[in-house]
Amino acid sequence: MSKRHIIYIGFVLIIICAISMFITGRKNTIMVFISGEDESINLEDLEIYVENATVAIIKDIRMIDNSVFVDISANNPGTTFLTVKKKGEEDAWTSIPIYVHETGVMTYGTLYGNCRGDIVVPIAITLYLILIFSRLLTTFRKSMKENMYQYRNILLLGVMLFLSFALCYSAIGVFSYRGLIQTLHMLMGIVTFFAQSMLPVTIIITLFVAVSNAKLIKHEGRNLRNVMGTVMGLLLCILSVAPELVSNYLFFHTTTIDIHNEQGIPMYVFMFIEALVYVIVVYLECILIATVIIAIKAARHVPAFDKDYILILGCKIKKDGTLTKLLQGRADRAVEFAKLQKDKTGKDIIFVPSGGKGNDEVMSEGEAIKNYLISVGIDEKHIMAETESENTFQNFGKSKALIDKAENEDPKIAFSTTNYHVFRSGMYATKQDIKVEGIGSKTKSYFWINAFAREFIATLESEKLIHFLLVMGISLVVLIMVALIYLSNVS
Predict the structure, then answer these.
(1) Residue 144: which of 131, 160, 130, 132 has the closest Cα?
(2) Could you write out the three-class secondary structure of the chain?
(3) Higher pLDDT, 243 or 390
(4) Cα→Cα distances 363→61, 320, 422, Å
(5) Contact 486, 478 (CB under 8 A)
(6) How many CA atoms lie less than 13 Å away from 220 in the CB half-sphere?
(7) Residue 355 Ramachandran class (φ > 0 left, ψ -120 to 50 alpha, else beta)
(8) How many Å apart are CA 72 and CA 59, to the nearest integer?
(9) What sign does the dihedral 238-239-244-246 (CA atoms) show?
(10) What is the radius of gyration, based on Cα positions, of the chain?
């Protein structure tokens, strides 16, 4: 099913909802609960009327237990009130606003409140979410099969994670439906509930990461990079509780801003800000979870044993020109893969150690890796060093250019890097239309936990425009829903 079909189905569902409410919405039954203090009250003791009969008229009244059911039919567009009171008393027990819209649809309670036939709205929303989820799942599987290093895989999985939660919430809303405005509150409440329900998990993970970061600082010193995971976890925890803290402060400590008055603008401004904060929290959490899942899957992936070349992505070397433990792990992983391929298929592989010379390095990283490969028994004729690249993106571009000079046919390429770095490296290759498969070398647990957080932030930064547009799009939807709630409550 194409995107166009999804859009068409969305419009069809909107039309079905509109037709359902248009056909059945001219009539409604309003239930009024009568206080059980005086059980002797019956219909003869009550005065029930619509204040403006030109807008709506009462068709039937019946009483069951302590509840009065009033059947009302719309006449003309306008606003009126259903009043229920005890005969002989001036004060009404209840006065319910009734709105007849230009379409003839009648709502009560609020401008966009309950109307007959509107139950199709949450049902349609649930069905549409199922449809979108199915479409995303199919697209995700196809995308992962084509190329697991596409960033769209993270976006697709992140959206599916949120939709799976939203689907459960939406399905519950169908069975507890109380009107259109309640549906809007339900939709906005999804992100709030998601963020708050994830808070205990976020706190536990943050504590775990903090312990890991403490070990990392002990071994490698203090710097911002080594506490990135803890900082990110604390930020998510703070944002998850900040709206509630601000709400409680405004309620108990100030009268300047009243965020609990349904007739006042501040309530709806705060409602939008609160929803926006939770949208950002939920979005980041879903993308973070998706990033970790995809990154782990990429790190554990074993390429097919048909490769012609294997790139070894460089990183900082020691002052004497030997490899750091991190870089040695990458080289060893490449050697291990080459031996496995040789044993299984008999096919040799060309090593392409890649990396230029930094200002504080005695030689290029590519040359240092080449020396190490020779020291562990790799024949020099099976090594083709790339020594000019300055970053991971150039590792692929310059190495591929080197390979193309020596290869007439389309070569099959693998690359070796540290486990947490496989996905982002593959993403850089994908951006240059270089087909590769990656393998990941192991690193110490206290390092890779923080490294995944850094990779997540780096990946966010590399695709910041996509994230900005998605968050802005979601924020616009939230703004529209808040505006509808405002118009419904103040009209």
Answers:
(1) 160
(2) CCHHHHHHHHHHHHHHHHHHHHHHCCEEEEEEECCCCCCCCCHHHEEEEECCCCCEEEEEEEEECCEEEEEEEECCCEEEEEEEEECCCCCCCEEEEEEECCCCCEEECCCCCECCCCCHHHHHHHHHHHHHHHHHHHHHHHHHHHCCCCCHHHHHHHHHHHHHHHHHHHHHHHHCCCCHHHHHHHHHHHHHHHHHHHHHHHHHHHHHHHHHHHHHHHHHCCCHHHHHHHHHHHHHHHHHHHHHHHHHHHHHHCCCCCCCCCCCHHHHHHHHHHHHHHHHHHHHHHHHHHHHHHHHHHHHCCCCCCCCEEEEECCCCCCCCCCCHHHHHHHHHHHHHHHHHHHHHCCCCEEEEECCCCCCCCCCHHHHHHHHHHHCCCCHHHECCECCCCCHHHHHHHHHHHHHHHCCCCCCEEEEEEHHHHHHHHHHHHHCCCCEEEEEECCCHHHHHHHHHHHHHHHHHHCHHHHHHHHHHHHHHHHHHHHHHHHHHHC
(3) 390
(4) 93, 9, 25
(5) no
(6) 17
(7) left
(8) 6
(9) positive
(10) 32
Task: Name the one residue in this structure whose structure tokens are 């690249």.
Answer: 389
Q: Mind listing the pLDDT tens digit for each residue in 422-454?
A: 998 999 999 999 999 999 998 876 676 777 777
Residue 447 makes CB contacts below 8 A (sequence gap 6+) with 216
**Tokens linked to 401:** 């250019």
What does the alpha-carbon distance between residue 262 and residue 125 come to, in Å, rounded to a whole number?
26
Dihedral sign from CA coordinates of 82, 120, 13, 6: positive
pTM, to two decimals: 0.79
Output the CA angle 32-35-41, nearest 5 degrees. Answer: 90
49's tokens: 């009327």
Cα–Cα distance between 254 and 260 in angstroms, integer? 12
Instruction: Please choose, from the candidates 414, 445, 421, 335, the residue with its C-alpha nearest in 3D space to the C-alpha of residue 382.
Output: 335
Instruction: Look over the chain and give the mean of its residue pLDDT values, rounded to a whole number.
Output: 85
Separation between Cα atoms, residue 238 and residue 367, nearest integer Å:
47
Max Cα distance, the chain (Å): 107
Between 407 and 387, the higher pLDDT residue: 387
Instruction: Taking residues 41-69, report their average pLDDT.
Output: 87
* 158 to 136, 287, 334, 392: CA distances (angstroms): 10, 5, 31, 25
Q: For residue 414, which amino acid is it?
A: A
Terminal-to-terminal C-alpha distance of the chain: 42
Q: Of 378, 310, 395, 404, which Cα lies nearest the Cα of 350? A: 310
Q: In this structure, are strands 94-100 and 106-108 parallel, antiparallel, or unpaired?
A: antiparallel
pLDDT digits (tens, 9 = 90+) for 72-95: 999 999 999 998 888 877 776 788
Q: Quick one: tokens of 380?
A: 């020099």
Q: How far apart are CA 238 and CA 110, in angstroms?
A: 35
